[in-house]
Structure to design on (647 residues):
């Protein structure tokens, strides 16, 4: 063994040394709080109260009361995500030229820090049948009956826009400001009008970043729970998939079924995220700068 | 190559100004550019030369003054309506488009027929000697090649005026000399007018028909490279044009319109450039004009010496403590005591007016 380098040296050559041990706490953390519960849930979902290993999944996909929740959730999450991303792009384009960017950013971050429950409570009061909005509408004769904006689809929709937009916007802003402004100037010098500069120069460079933004915003909207219960109609049009999982776990005490629903929920999210990232692979990937310097 | 420049007779800047808050980046700059001229805007950093170029391009609105292209007032127009070409300091190539698509962009914006675009892109690629690189992305070619693409992209639309913002500052010394010749060649070939921003006086002198020296947002002098080299109008322009010895002195009129000055404790004759008041003056001498000679009036002790191939450039100190930059054809060593002399017509005398 004399002619071989020591084990320690060989490990060091592969990038493993004392400092590598510093990642162990993080690994333990991830294992304990993410990997173990996930595997536990996965295992649990295959050990139903009755029937074979797949009977939970079979039950989910044969009962429209359960499988319809996928469609219901998508019907809320997809439009909300698209709206948030589509609106955040022009706003970010405008904001990047503002001097008081920080003030605006602070104002937008507040809904994130308040949390969904507080926003939901606030919206209940504001948009409810006796809320300010309806009182103003009735007072000025703009509506004959109170407009129903809570305890239905639109309540959840609005709440998700309010809590989701700042997050989407801040991500978009960081991607928009990452594009070298001299590229647009070069476009203008070559005769491109604002719309052409956006379509031909900015948008192609933003596609990778916007895809990531879409993915993150979508996952956030898809896992909606508090506002679907508080502002929606949790028995009907806003019976999202997380409500189904909640009912299985805490109303029927069927943890196995709840785990199966959670797995299906995760699978749908992963499917959409992978599809989006796959599309992104077709677009230009590289620096959004104009050259050296 | 059949690129003939869209014509104009002259471009006039009339008292243009640009303020940033309380800072006047440009103050009442007036300039007339003739068709086909190569103008260099020269000055130290912060002098307003890039601001002037951006105002001309339409990328920065003016806060005062007007810009005329013959009889048409163009300063209210946006950059996309002016039709000027611009080469950016960082090239600003579209990173997601191939070299060909970058060059074709301006022609596509003009909605030219597809076969015409293809032909003109080919011509432009050949003009900048990049015929082989058309299919590559900007990130896949070298800095010098990116520079050529940026030039091709700016000129393929046959703009009446090409604006260049320190285009060579990101290149290494050898490539910079090559591209300098290339830019001059293309300018001559196309016959367009060029306005070129630089802080490098060598670059300005070798490229330009006329040089505009800017300082603190104001025009200090406009002239041919020869005029600026031989006869800078002010002491600060002289310093910028390579007159490294700017010595404070007294000045008294002498015969033949010359003035007598004191440099390093010795009396010298010089040419008054500015009107001299009663007070102090400055004598400006290029290091290459100050050389050792047996009857040289200025005594100096050599402090450092630098070999530059053909001759030596050194720093000496006169008896009164004045630091003097000089040239010597023979080897001298630190510590040597020299007699330095200069021809009277190569001593320029400026007032303290600035």
């Amino acid at each position: 063994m004399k002619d071989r380098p020591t084990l320690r040296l060989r490990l060091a050559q592969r990038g493993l040394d004392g400092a590598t041990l510093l990642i162990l706490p993080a690994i333990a953390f991830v294992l304990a709080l993410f990997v173990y519960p996930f595997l536990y849930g996965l295992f649990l979902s295959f050990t139903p109260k009755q029937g074979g290993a797949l009977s939970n999944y079979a039950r989910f996909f044969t009962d429209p009361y359960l499988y319809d929740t996928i469609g219901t959730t998508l019907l809320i999450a997809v439009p909300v995500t698209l709206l948030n991303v589509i609106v955040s792009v022009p706003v970010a384009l405008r904001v990047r030229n503002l001097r008081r960017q920080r003030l605006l950013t602070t104002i937008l971050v507040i809904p994130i820090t308040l949390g969904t429950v507080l926003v939901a409570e606030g919206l209940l009061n504001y948009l409810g049948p006796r809320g300010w909005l309806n009182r103003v509408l009735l007072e000025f004769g703009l509506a004959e009956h109170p407009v129903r904006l809570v305890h239905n689809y639109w309540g959840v929709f609005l709440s998700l826009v309010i809590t989701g937009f700042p997050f989407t916007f801040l991500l978009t802003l960081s991607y928009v400001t990452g594009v070298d402004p001299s590229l647009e100037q070069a476009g203008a010098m070559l005769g491109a009008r604002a719309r052409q500069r956006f379509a031909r120069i900015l948008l192609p460079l933003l596609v990778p970043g916007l895809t990531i933004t879409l993915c993150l915003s979508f996952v956030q909207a898809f896992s909606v729970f508090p506002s679907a219960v508080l502002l929606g109609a949790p028995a009907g049009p806003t019976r999202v998939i997380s409500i189904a999982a909640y009912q299985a776990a805490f109303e029927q005490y069927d943890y196995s079924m709840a785990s199966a629903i959670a797995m299906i929920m995760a699978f749908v999210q992963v499917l959409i995220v992978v599809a989006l990232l796959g599309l992104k692979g077709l677009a230009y990937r590289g620096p959004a700068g104009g050259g050296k310097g | 190559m059949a690129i003939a420049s869209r014509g104009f007779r002259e471009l006039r800047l009339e008292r243009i100004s640009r303020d940033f808050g309380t800072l006047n980046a440009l103050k009442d700059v007036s300039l007339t550019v003739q068709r086909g001229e190569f103008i260099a805007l020269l000055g130290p950093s912060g002098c307003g030369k890039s601001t002037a170029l951006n105002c001309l391009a339409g990328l920065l609105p003016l806060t005062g003054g007007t810009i005329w292209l013959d009889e048409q007032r163009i300063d209210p127009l946006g950059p996309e309506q002016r039709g000027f070409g611009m080469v950016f300091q960082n090239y600003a190539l579209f990173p997601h488009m191939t070299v060909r698509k970058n060059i074709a962009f301006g022609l596509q914006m003009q909605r030219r027929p597809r076969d015409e675009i293809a032909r003109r892109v080919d011509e432009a690629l050949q003009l900048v000697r990049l015929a082989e690189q058309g299919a590559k992305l900007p990130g896949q070619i070298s800095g010098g090649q990116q520079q050529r693409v940026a030039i091709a992209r700016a000129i393929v639309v046959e703009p009446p005026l090409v604006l260049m913002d320190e285009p060579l500052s990101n290149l290494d010394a050898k490539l910079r000399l090559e591209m300098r010749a290339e830019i001059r060649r293309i300018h001559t070939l196309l016959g367009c007018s060029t306005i070129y921003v630089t802080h490098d006086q060598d670059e300005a002198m070798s490229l330009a028909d006329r040089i505009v020296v800017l300082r603190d947002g104001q025009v200090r002098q406009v002239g041919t490279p020869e005029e600026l080299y031989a006869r800078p109008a002010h002491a600060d322009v002289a310093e910028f044009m390579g007159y490294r010895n700017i010595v404070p002195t007294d000045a008294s009129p002498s015969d033949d319109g010359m003035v007598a000055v004191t440099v390093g404790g010795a009396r010298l004759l010089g040419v008054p450039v500015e009107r001299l008041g009663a007070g102090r003056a400055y004598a400006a001498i290029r290091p290459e004009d100050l050389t050792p000679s047996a009857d040289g009036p200025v005594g100096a002790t050599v402090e450092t010496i630098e070999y530059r191939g053909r001759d030596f450039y050194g720093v000496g100190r006169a008896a009164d403590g004045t630091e003097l930059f000089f040239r010597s054809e023979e080897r001298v060593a630190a510590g040597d005591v020299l007699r330095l002399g200069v021809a009277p017509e190569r001593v320029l005398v400026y007032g303290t007016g600035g």
About this structure: The domain at 66-280 of chain A is CATH 1.10.3720.10 (MetI-like fold).
